[in-house]
Structure formats: structure tokens, C-alpha cells
Amino acid sequence: xxxxxxxxxxxxxxxxxCIRNCLLKAIRFTNGHAEIIQNECIGCGECVVTCxxxxxxxxxxLDAVKRQLxxxxxxxxxxxxxxxxxFDVSCxxxxxxxxxxxxxxxxxxxxxxxxxxSREYERIMRENEKDILISSVCxxxxxxxxxxxxxxxxxxxxVQSPMEVHCRRLRRQYPDALVVYIGxxxxxxxxxxxxxxxxxxxxxxxxxxxxxxxxxxxxxxxTKAERGIRARRYPRQDGIVKSMTRVPGWSRVSIxxxxxxxxxxxxxxxxxxxxxxxxxxxxxGSCVNGPAIRSNRYxxxxxxxxxxxGYAGEWDFGVSEPASVLKAFTPxxxxxxxxxxxxxxxxxxxxxxxxxDTALNCGACGYPTCREMAAALCLGKADMDMxxxxxxxxxxxxxxxxxxxxxxxxxxxxxxxMRVVQDIASILGETTAETKVMLEKLKEAIQE
Length: 448
What we know:
Shape: elongated
Number of helices: 17
Order of helices and strands: HEEHHEHHEHEHHEHEHHEHEHHHHH
């Protein structure tokens, strides 16, 4: 995958929240900072969304699009149907007006591509080309399968994503124009680069900032579409399923969230499932809860789904696609290096986690078990100080050393003071008992 995501190392300070939320543990923690391991990443963006220090993404194409507009070039946009969940508009016409003010030549709904993809899924099921069919709409899930479940590629639909289909249509329709995808998803940038379907990618969050800077405000016309299009359901959970016509003999299952998708793929490995269409999306709640919508770390599932439901309907665009929308996915298996058991045991001893009583598996480091944390240490992906119980014990040992050294110093001071007092007392003929009591009390206070 292209390095589209990064974490802000300037503000990264020992919280490990990104590691806890990355189910694939595609993050390395060294020298006090977290760093994404690009070849293991699937681009879901969960690390960026959950980063309390405002982790970011690599600069996308906003500046390049602005330059092309200033140069007078035609720029056309493929607008992700999730726009209805993140902008205060009632229909695409409302947002199109704002984009035209920014200089765009034309704006179309990516839902057009979604409709074409749905019809292709239906054809594959009708013709029984596959016994199990996994949707190829979400590029993060496609990468998950290619990298971690290459044996499941036989079930992944060999179909382009709605973004690919629609952007290629725009390119044929406007051969001299710059084709831009606008949506809520970081990993679409990787898809644009790897397939060449789009020239640029702009996130919803960046578009909002751009419109604010230019003083462009979209007016909500509160216009209700006469014919709601069912492909506009794609951004919601189970939206792909609901945009399709049921094929007799096939079951349809909707799965959202990386964790649930991983569990489903593990279940498929066990067998016993047939004639099932599996809609898989990486974001919980699907695209209405995409990472560029959750940039302020609030959930958008309810409000976004309600907006999508109100905009969609039971009609179709009625478009046809003369070009083939088939696509071949190739495996990109991630090499999972397993450190020697002896090395893991040595690390557990250093961490004092080599017994059931001490291996708490608290997960504070971001790894679910102490053994997994130790394995990550062996691979250079973790740091000893990520273990909070280890740090606590280390601090206690240090405190004890400080107290012990202080007591030893106090004993030496008391001995010296006693000798001085005894010398003075012998000269003055006075008792040293009262002075001795005071010094012993001082020692007791230090011990406490």
C-alpha cells in the first residue's frame, strides 16, 4: 500500500491508543513514538481517528486540484454518496452548487458506479460463478483479504469498486478533464494511485475547510427527490445488500467493522457456508462513519444512516456500462515473522511476566496479552516501557533504592552527630540522651 497515512510524532506521548485500536497491530513503537508499518497497513484509518494527539494523513491532492483550477483546466468530481450524511444538504444539487462556485466543471454521484456494481454482483450470483461472494466495494477489506487472507481471494468478487467504475466513466466522458474523487475514506487514495482511475482524491473534511476559506456555503434546499435511488444506500450498514435485487437461493449477510470482518473470514475458513453474499466494510456503520467524517472523533452512525435513508429510495438510475467492470485481485501476503520461543521467554523474564500470577494480560500496552507484547519486543515493534505494570515495579524499585540510600546516609549523619554531641557533652559535662532521642525520631520519620 502507498504511504497515505502517518502519525504525528511531534505530539506522540506514550498512550498506545493507536496500537490498541489497530486489530492488525500494523504499528511500530520505538523511541517513544508510534509509526505505521506501511506494508502491514490496510488503510482503515482507525489509528488516525482514535489518536488523541491528532494523528494525520499524508498530504492528499487538494493543493494540486486548486492549481489545476487556477490554470483553467476542467475538473470533474465523483462525489461519494456518503456526502448526504456529512453535509447540511438535502440532495446532490445543493452540494453541486457549492462545488461549482469553487470552480468545478461537473459533479456526479458515485452512486452511478454503485448501481453498475450491484448489477454485476447479481449476475455473478445468478450464474453461480462463485459459491460464496464477498463484496469488493471497500478497498480496506480488499487489502485485508489480499494481505492476511489470500486463501479467501477465491470468494472476493472480481469486480471494480463503485469509485473505479464511476471515475472511469467520467474519464471517458471528459477525456481532457482532471477526475477527482471526493469522499470520507483515506484508503481511496491508495485505490486511485494503484488503479489510475482518478487523478486526485479530496476528503470531506478537506472540502469543508476549503469551502470555509473561500466563503462558500451550501444552501439546504430541503428538496425531496421525486425518485429516490436505491444505490444511494451504499454508505450505510447493509446498504449494498439493500441496493440489490434478491437472487433466489442466495443468502445475504452484512458485516461491518474490521474486527467482525476478520471473524467472518476466519469462519469461512472452517467451511460449511455456501450460496452466501457477504457485504463487508471496514468502518463500523459503513461509510456514513468513515474516517474523514469522524475527524472530530464523534460517531455519525445514527444521523448519517437517517440522512441516507431519507435520500435513497427504490428506483434505479437505469444506467448501463459498455466497458468491462471486472478486475483481478492479486495476493500480497504479509510475512508474519514469529520470534523464537526462547527469545520470547527471555523478554517475559525481563518484564517479570513469566508466571500466571505476574502475566496480567491487562492490555495497557496495546497488545491483548503479555506474550504478544513480548513477541513484539523481539521484533522491534514495541518498547519495554510500554508495559505499565513493569514501569510501576521499576518505579517502586527506584523509590526503594532512594529510601535505602537516604536511610544509609541518615545513619552516617546520626553517627557523626552523636560523636560530636558526645564530645561536646564530655566537655560541658552534660547528657546526650535528649539529643540522641531527637536524632532517632528523625531516622524513624525517614523510614516511614
